[in-house]
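Page header: ASSEMBLY MODEL / two components / 587 residues total.
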Amino acid sequence: MARYGMALDYKNCINCKACEVACKEENGVLLGADKHRIWVGSNDPEGIWPNLSLASAAFMPSQCQHCDDAPCQEVCPTHATYYDENGVVRVNSDKCILCSYCMNACPYDARYVDDRTMTVDKCTFCSDTRLARGETTTACQNTCPTKVRTFGDLDDPNSEISTLLRDREHFSLKSHLGTNPKLFYLT
Amino acid sequence: MSIIEKGKEFVSTIPFNKVSVKDLLSFEKSPRNILIAVLTLAFLAMFVIGVGIYLVHGHHAYGVTRQHPWGLLIAVYIFFVVSSTGLCIVGSLGDVFGFKDYMMISKRAIFGSIVTIMAGFAVIAFEIGHPVTMLIYNILSPGLTSAIWWMGTLYGLYLTFMVIEFVFLLKNDMKMARYFGLTGLLVGLAAHSNLGGVFGFLNARTISNGVFYPTYFILTAFITGIYISFIMMGFRYKLKFPENARVMLVNLAKIQALLISILIFFETWKMLTAVYGGMPNRAEVAEHILTTMPFWIEVAFAMVIPLFIILKSAGKNVLGMFWGSLLGMVGIFFMRYDLVHDTQLKPLQMMKITEYQLPPEWVHYFPSATEIMISLGGLGICLLLYYVGTKVFTLDADEH
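Prediction written out in full:
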């Protein structure tokens, strides 16, 4: 029993997209631009050359925020979306009816349709793959060349992520919606 | 007498006309009737083709995407269930609330409510990815915090009550019809406001989030019910309305004028509060909606033109309102389409995620041919069931 979360030192991201590839490879996510569990967002630099704002051209790696109060879980009519014993938001494909309500309710656009099962799929923190094999890292974290991601147990005060969150200022995406995400962006 | 025997006797005494295929084909061969018959058959053929394509290609046959997961079929489902709730309200005026003027339409409206919701279910069955799984897990692991669960479950109950009420109306047992009618009406209103809640609960979609839709759905249902009442009575009497029908329709037109006025008032304030203050994600979506053609079609066809027709004649232009109601239903369709599309207009992820991508602006959607065929097929099912109903059952109250 753990309460998994992830801290992202997002300013270190170089947009190499190795995390996206590793996620697809590890978890067998289908090819296709719309079929992704994680992504790196980027903004074009603002301003007119040579007065370009480099600060505006940030890279923002993102994925399911594994909210403690997940709207996708609340709106699911058949409890297909649930919290597993580690607080990870998961989808039981046997129960999913593909009403797509969760896709509309998720504030982070973190869900998509898996064409093999015709059910909604999303990031699982590699629960079915790496964690099931006893490993302690996710694929995206393991492959990141600039060590953007730190994954771990938020309930363990000695874990690397807990230490990071104590030492570094951080924020969550769309925190005003009260979803209590377990993805933290370090500043 | 055992319960089974009593049940058998109850069912065997439901009055209905024995109808053969020949009877169904023996309608007056006027150009209007032939046109409607051909259109109905064409719509049914489209339904079969559309469903065939869907069964082969799944949701790939639709225009829906990750950013716009709800498309035309959701809008059409809402269109039909709103029609059903509206007809239930109109039908209840006579047989539940006892307004004598409206008795003559009760049976027809309640039958219409059954037909429209069945058409809605026929359409939604091909939008929900796994409808059989839904039936199973709706019961085995109900998601009580989900507005879709409540909406679907209550609509199932509502259909049951409507059928029972209709049976008692056929048997002319007005007391029992009133009990089941009242229960069905309450369950239907609860189901319908939950359908509004499906959108109202979307915290991430600020344009739809809030109390507006759950209440507005009830109001627009009543408006839709009155439009369909005009259309049904117009066809029933071939636009030559007898005095009792005219009295009822003039009254309904007056109620309609009030309801449309309230709707315009609601809609105006919704847009004003959405735009005012420039709140991110809400104001820009509202401003964008004001520049879209479907919104103005909705305003003109569902609100302004019918209201003008009613006000110009103080509600007495029943013939004009028949045509106004046909136009009104087109407007109501756009109202449902706008509701679904506008909710999803704003991308939830505003950064570029692939190379050479333009920054996200608005989510685009246009229904695919398959979606359009299944949607028109829903209308075909509705028309066919209603036509069969007019042959099998006596829907006029005054013939008892």
